[in-house]
Amino acid sequence: MSKDPSHVKLPFREKFGYSLGDAGANFVFQMMIIFQTGFYTDVMGISASAVGWMLLLVRFSDAITDPIMGAIADRTNTRWGKFRPWLIWSAVPFALLFWAAYTVPSGLSESAKLWYAVGTYTVLMMAYTVNNAPYSALNGVMTSSGSERTSLSQFRFFAAMTAAFVVQGLTLPLVKKFGDGDDAKGWSLTIGMFAVIMVGLFVITFISAKERVQPPANQKPDFWADFTGAFRNRPWLAMFGMASFMFITLALRGGSGYYYFTYYVDADALTAFVDRLGFFASPEAMADPGVGFRLLDTFGLIVKPGDSPVAVGFSMFNMTGGLVNIIGVLAAGVLANRFGKKAVFIAGLGGATLAQGCFYFVDSTSVSTMFLLTILTSLSYGPTIPLMWAMIADTADYGEWKTNRRATGFMFAGVVFALKAGLGVGGAVTGWLLAMYGYPEDADVRPLWEQAVAAQGLLAESDAAKQLWDVMILEARQTGELMGGYRKMLGFYSALFFALGWACMLFYPISKKVAIQMGEELSARRAG
Questions:
Q1: What is the pLDDT of residues 302-327, one digit of tens each?
Q2: Is the pLDDT of residue 63 over 70?
Q3: Of 483, 175, 199, 187, which is closest to residue 311 (Cα–Cα)?
Q4: What three-state secondary structure class fits 114?
């Protein structure tokens, strides 16, 4: 019996090159789960309720585009393979649309801003599908080895978490530094820089990866068979449900975190915490800045006297979680080989659920406790990150094992749809909860500010008037009901959706024993 040619150990160069593709996509992904809702409400000035509906309704287009893209990728045949070419074809349009979605054209009316946001966000999500569905499917065709897929996923998500560390940690400080008081300008320049980096990363992945696993030789294209096969694939259904709830949580947790740190966390306590970490500009450091101080200040990671600590404090919070996630990603392979992917996933998601729920009980001044909880959440959640995508590849194997039909692209595209639907629902829930708790728009506060400016005889463009605006908008967004709402959003509601994702995984049937049996029988079948 001949050896299965697709059951290979991948070289480091290929794994590393493949991983950079997800680093590129994570510039967009992390922006969506952490900053998107806050950008739309606080920079573009769109109401929280409108943002919620926009994020949800755009997802209806994904219900069409995602499975279609998966089917197209499965039927693509080029000298580069089925999935690789889509990375190079989509790279530049994807990057340009990313920049456009976070650039606010001047002179637009309130309604025009909303329609601009709807249009750019819709097309950006289409570009995300064209790029990320084929990229994700590459995991299932570069090798048929289950352990190598887990290793490949570890490389992928180490790179992804590194990109997350950059985006979550540097975005707000860079926006503040580049904008110099003009947030819209700061966002446009920051995202433009990220977009250029994205293109380079996609090109490297295209050059590095190689496709090896092919559909059965006698398999003919049949979209309906792929579609119905997915919905008869029990492990895929479990992964689809889990991914939906998990990414609702990520969007809700990320979006809520922005509001939680901006309005709930006590500013004095956060400043003191940042000072203890060495990110506050003392008079001595300002007078004689060292190399480390200058480097941090270059990226906007220094809080200077009179500055709000939110940008740096929230960045430190995100980077702490990101670093711990990387530890979890690195441990995933060892844990999965010892206990099986399913067992590790269920344990990790359960631990993350409990730690996340504890945020509800944290006082606004207990900044150290907040950081401890994000460490515990990330330590539990981290191993699930690479395992999720390795397990989706296993669902494609499961379909082939049971029916002798393989639809790798469709399986991954379906879960990419669940991912994006989850992000949309999570963003929508964030907006609706904010509206329910009475989060005011700029337009709600502006008439009162204009009256106060007139009463004090100030010019609207003066520094004193701008400072008065900052004070009034902050007070309007720190009412008792809203302060309780921020706690519930980050704690209770985020943990609730995590728990629903955990429950879905109880129905995932591919245990360690089943995975070994499935892999051996498929290898024998492919070897002839």
A1: 888 878 888 889 989 988 998 898 88
A2: no
A3: 175
A4: helix
